[in-house]
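Title: Comparing notes on inverse folding

I've been comparing how different people in this forum approach sequence design from structure. To keep things fair, I'm posting one structure and asking everyone to reply with a full sequence. Here's the target:
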């Protein structure tokens, strides 16, 4: 997620991070999860498939003194989700920012990932889904009301429970 899009996202949801479990899917460097922690999230779960990048997330957590509030899972997000043990006692702030190509090449898996997490999420959870204009945001779970905003080339959908 580009810096300007991340800034826009946190202008939309930043005040809602307090006390939530931040879940940073396709975490990359973990910028979204760490930003959520800095805005009051209780804990953060980072899921990143690229093992060297997951090591960077661990190093960043240590540098920030947040290791005790971070869970870093290195592996495929699609394989992680079905067995993920996530805190259901507090609402979630979920960031789903996969490579844009996944919405075309792995659309079914990506939509199933989001749907499954929406179904498991506690009341009060917030979902942030970043895609590009090729993806039809009307395909997101209809159980949430989605606020869709363009930040070319990105499109950000925020769904609240």
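Reply #1:
Here's my take.
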């Amino acid at each position: 997620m580009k810096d300007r899009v991340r800034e826009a996202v946190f202008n939309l949801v930043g005040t809602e991070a307090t006390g939530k479990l931040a879940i940073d899917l396709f975490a990359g460097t973990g910028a979204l999860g760490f930003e959520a922690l800095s805005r009051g999230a209780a804990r953060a779960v980072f899921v990143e498939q690229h093992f060297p990048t997951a090591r960077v997330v661990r190093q960043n957590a240590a540098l920030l003194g947040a290791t005790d509030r971070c869970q870093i899972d290195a592996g495929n997000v699609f394989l992680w989700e079905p067995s993920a043990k996530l805190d259901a006692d507090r609402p979630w702030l979920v960031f789903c920012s996969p490579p844009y190509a996944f919405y075309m090449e792995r659309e079914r898996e990506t939509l199933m990932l989001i749907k499954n997490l929406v179904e498991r999420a506690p009341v009060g959870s917030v979902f942030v889904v970043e895609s590009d204009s090729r993806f039809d945001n009307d395909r997101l779970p209809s159980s949430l009301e989605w606020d869709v905003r363009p930040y070319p080339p990105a499109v950000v959908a925020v769904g609240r429970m």
